[in-house]
Amino acid sequence: MGIKKALLAGMAAAVLLLAAACQGAPADAPSATATLTPSATSDTPTAVAPPPTPAIRPQDWAVVTEERPLHEAALSGSRADVEEALDQGADVNVTATVEIHTGQEVSGLTPLHLASALNDDPEVAMLLLDRGADIGTNDGFGYTPLHWAAGLNNNPEVVALLLDWGADIEAGIDGDWLTPHGITPLHLAAGHDNNLEVAALLLDRGADIESEDEDGSTPLHYAARFKASQEMVALLLDRGADIKARDDSGGTPLHHAAGFNHREWSNNDKEIAALLLDRGANIDAEDDDGNTPLHHAAGFNDKEMVALLLDRGADVAAENEDGNTPLHNAAAGPLSDKEVAALLLDRGADIQVKNDNGDTPCQLARTREEFRGTPVLGRLCAP
């Protein structure tokens, strides 16, 4: 895919990822979902990887809807409080809007959603199920209790309980225009380095390792894109995940690993890319628009990823369907950067190559504020 097209595709995937909201971003960090993160003040989400996991406390969540004592009890994690609310006639499947720890509101949450998301002790969820809780209820964003448990709780006991009670292991999120449909609990678990046990359990219980969301991304794509961990990627590969799997735009897991630079939240990108290469990923694989992983890394301002790919033999002169080389992308990509351009020049990138519009990297860089008046622009435009 083209670099701008890739950014939009990444947004659509990132905006959905439950745990990007569940894990919680810093207050001044770019939004990982348009609806669930504290910085979601813009109509345009930013494609980001999940941030490090903070200590998530039930008291950081608050029921917004009035008169929902069962939700309050479920948040407290107290089996006695939940039982008391049920004995007093509370509807076990009543829904509420809840403000989660990120400061955003999530509608359509049942007490079972909350118990599955936050409680380490499965007894609360067990009680709710015993009293008739609907295990397949979708919240306002299409998440089932199993999605919340897999994407946030990281407690295999809770996940196992839900599965034992008949939760659909292949349930796909019924998303909106920004949220890809078809994301399974395994997709969510795979996107986070701290969900290794849950991912293993889901696989042990029969989760489809090649399940695809509506954009064609598999759990391995998610682990690579959201910089989960080498261990998560290794687990999926060891269980048979296809390292050459293509999403609907032709992107491989290596494209996803190379495509987004979010080292402020994750330092795993190079390690994951290196592991994929060690396990046989094609370093010069082209997506449907002819972009290689190096095109993506260059366009997304990831100097360390660019260096890794070049060190491993990536073709610095590769041209995509529009005739753009990685240097063109570094000069005019959505996150163009003079340091990346300088690195490509140091590694032999040709400044004379024209794309299909007749533009050289020099001509593109002249349109970008970050290049103006810099020595790199002089190198790009050398006679």
Mean pLDDT: 83
Task: State the fourth-level CATH superfamily of the domain at 3-232.
Answer: Ankyrin repeat-containing domain
Q: What's the CATH architecture name of the domain at 3-232?
A: Alpha Horseshoe
Write down the secondary-structure element order.
HHEHHEEHHHHHHHHHHHHHHHH
Briefly, what CATH class of the domain at 3-232?
A: Mainly Alpha
**Spatial extent as radius of gyration:** 23 Å
Q: Roughly how many Å apart are the termini? A: 32 Å
Separate helix tally:
20
Label the structural class.
mainly alpha
Biggest beta-sheet profile: 3 strands, antiparallel
Which parts are unreliable, with pLDDT below 50 for 5 consecutive residues or more?
1-55
**What name does the CATH topology of the domain at 3-232 carry?**
Serine Threonine Protein Phosphatase 5, Tetratricopeptide repeat
Helix fraction?
40-55%
Number of strands: 3
In terms of DSSP E residues, the strand content is under 5%
Describe this entry's structure for a reader:
The protein is an all-alpha fold and 383 residues long. The chain has a domain at 3-232: Alpha Horseshoe (Serine Threonine Protein Phosphatase 5, Tetratricopeptide repeat). It is built from 20 helices and 3 strands. Strands 1-2-3 form a 3-stranded antiparallel beta sheet. Helix 3 packs parallel to helix 5, helix 13 packs antiparallel against helix 14 and helix 13 (253-259) packs parallel to helix 15.
